[in-house]
Amino acid sequence: MITPYDQIELYGLTENGTDDLPIPMDDELQGRAVGDAFEALFGTIQGTGLASEVEPLAHAFATLFQRRAVSLDQAADRLKMKIRALIDAQDGSEIAENQLDEAQRLFTATWEKALALKLMAETAAEAYERETGEHYVPVTGDRTTKRAMETGAVFEAKKMLDAADRAEAERNKVTGTFIAVAGASDWIDSAPIWRRLDAALEKCPDMVLCHKGSRGAERIAASWAKSRKVPQVLFRPNWSAFSKAAPFRANDEMIKARIRGVILFGAGGIGLNLADKAAEKGLHVARIPAPEKERE
User: Fold this and answer.
1) Which pLDDT score is estimated for 91?
2) Model confidence, pTM
3) In whole angstroms, what is the distance from residue 17 CA to residue 58 CA?
């Protein structure tokens, strides 16, 4: 089991508590966090003079998770609206871009926590039903997860909304030739990166730059794209979900996005991983060595 000190060593301290630390796996949330806690509490008082309190206490136990899940879900919805507003208000300034990046980070963390709490809420509701034989109904609102409550009408309505969301995403989808960039985090010379990307843009006028937003070469490439008005697609690593594997998962997502090639600036394990995966797919990989003074 990872202690708080282990987590700090792996992920560092954060200004906003533990939002950047990984969320427990589903089986841990269902088993140890909810199942074991439920059994420890209600298994102790069942068959005693407090047995008549099992039903109301178990209902309150499930409602605790339910209300928090709803609260986080609403917070995620508000952040969605904020992100849309920030997208509309983008003026190319660094301040506006940083505000958008921070809103995206907060949304991802809040959305992932909401999913975890929804799972815990439904697990607690199902434990209540097993323990009491009664159907769990929240004090207010609906159950966050309705695995046993979906009717045909609900299913069809969800399909309709999903189709509408896909249509909206299709309208807003970036089109063009996707070229991925990766490189050394300590790369500081922008001139060779700009020259190489200018040459790539000349060959592919509809170029779309894909990267993870990492320090060094990728940040320089992002500045080039902004200056040349080249669309960018950011594959930000999901640290809270995948921990140390997050950058490699981001590489996988870039490959799935059907990039046409990779430009690798300097050596680096994560960049080399992307280049190797692209080469395995038969994609063109350009490997640009770091300037001599940087290699020294």
Assistant:
1) 75
2) 0.46
3) 30
